[in-house]
Amino acid sequence: MAIDFSIVQSSVLPLLQGLKVTVQVCVLGIPLGILTGAVAAYLTRGPWRALRALVFAYVEIVRNVPFLILVYLSFFGLPKLGISMPAFAIGVAATAFYTGGYFCEIMRGAFNSLARGQVQAASSLGLTNLQVQRYIVLPQIFGYLAPATTSLTIMMFKDSSIFSVMSLTELTYQSNLLTADTFAYVEVLGTTALIYWACSVLLDIAGQWSERYATRYRRA
Amino acid sequence: MNTWASFAPFFQDAAQGAATTAVASVVAFVLGVALGCVLLLVRVHGGRTLAAFVVIYVSFIRGTPALIQMLVAYYVLPSVLHLPLSPLAAGILALALNTGAYVSEILRGANNSLGHGQLPAAQALGLTSVQAWRYIIFPQLFYRTIPPLTNEFTMLLKASSLMSLIAVHELATVARDASLQTNLPLQVFSAVAAVYFVILFAASSASRRLERRVAKVLPHGH
To answer: Chain A, 129-168: which have a CB under 8 Å from a chain B CB?
Structure first.
């Protein structure tokens, strides 16, 4: 099978425009999700049982319901509730919701990886709760969080391809437009796949770098 | 017409869709685990060049969306392989190729933690390398990786919903059709989300039971 490089060449620009939207959704949605997940993880350590149950339900829903179904539910369902949002905003919200559920689990795992005595020892030395988190807990769990957060980020970056079903003009949607136009599946899908792959590899490298940074004290 | 009556025509459809989702996922998982084992063996025994191919394959699969892989399996592979694939076959193939890469990484991690002395030890005792993998290494790898493999199955079953985008008639397809026809997206997609939830929750509970039973049988330290 011959590859028509002129099609590859003419596809690159529209695909990169799609990548821009993909990146925008991820840059907004993933950090928002990490924040949501961190808050949810702290809530499970709090004294409110109802909130704890709510967080567990949230995490189980994220773990057990396909992202596609969640996107359909938001895209077609929200207008029925009188909430009309552009596809981009739904994309950001869905990314944040899904990332949050997974990050909550990661964060809870990180808390458990820390010896229980450390928090007690620190507070018995007179540190406030905030100081305990800032100086004792967070610096130690970053090494645990870094690799898991990297894979979560790559997972959500890839899952953003699902937003093509709600006509958000991200990378996969642009790819679908081009294949519908040219029928050049090999060239267009190949280029699209290479773009996703390159970004994932870059994210992975950045993740390894951040992991080394987060665990630097272990080598000191 | 009340809400329930407007759903009625879709119940049988939904049951069939759920069956397709479950069966396709199980078949793809079995194929994916087999592929994962082969990839691990190639990495261990295959020499540098083949091992490098496996590394690139795994990186590519982990670096591209399952949706793109599915579109490639449906639109590109049949013409490249000169092999007509039904949508369902292409979907299962894509899911299996995807899962194989992740499973090989899970098994490789377990294999590294096992240490590399067992294979030479087994061979020193007179086992062939096939016997060593069959009776010594693989059983230990699988006992140790029940939780991550279960997680992988969960991911696979969730990704199987993407088959609806290459015209496979499965649960997510039924959901989309029913939503369009009844114009009750909230109810339809919530109900279908609940079906996925129940299937996946049952699968992970079964796996936890299996894990407990394995833990009872195995000596301490495993």
So the answer is: 154, 158-162, 164-165
The total number of structural domains in chain A stands at 1
Q: Which residues of chain B have pLDDT under 70?
A: 1-4, 219-222
Instruction: Inform me whether the C-beta atom of residue B63 falls under 8 Å from chain A C-beta atoms.
Output: yes
What is the CATH number for A145? 1.10.3720.10
- Report the C-alpha gap between A195 and B52 in whole angstroms: 21
* Residue A37 to residue A21: CA distance in whole angstroms: 24
Exposure b/e, B44-78, CB count within 10 A at least 16 = b: bebeeeeeeebeebbebbbbbbbbbbbbbbbbbbe
Residue B2 falls inside a structural domain: no
Whole domain around residue B199: which residue ranges? Answer: 12-217
Work out the minimum CA distance from B62 to partner chain A, whole angstroms.
8
> What residue of B is the nearest CA neighbor of A199?
B63
Q: Is A90 on the interface with B (CB under 8 A)?
A: no
Question: Which residue segment(s) compose the domain that A168 sits in?
Answer: 5-219
Q: Which of A58, A76, A155 should be substituted to probe chain B, the one whose Cβ sees the most B Cβ atoms within 10 Å? A: A76
CATH number, domain at B41? 1.10.3720.10
Q: How far is CA B203 from CA A130, B35, B153, B207, in A?
A: 40, 21, 9, 6
What is the spatial distance between Cα B172 and Cα B174, in angstroms, rounded to a whole number? 5
Chain A CB contacts of B185 below 8 Å: 72-73, 76-77, 80
Residue B172 token pair: 């997510």
Residue B21's nearest CA partner among B152, B151, B147, B162 is B162
Is position B5 within any domain? no
Give per-residue pLDDT as tens, A105-156: 999 999 988 878 888 899 899 999 899 988 988 888 888 899 999 999 999 9
Please answer whether residues B222 and B143 qualify as being in contact, where contact means their C-beta atoms are separated by less than 8 angstroms: yes
- For residue range B13-60, list pLDDT tens digits in order: 899 999 999 999 999 999 999 999 999 999 999 999 999 999 999 999
| Rounded-to-integer distance, Cα B187 and Cα B200, Å | 20
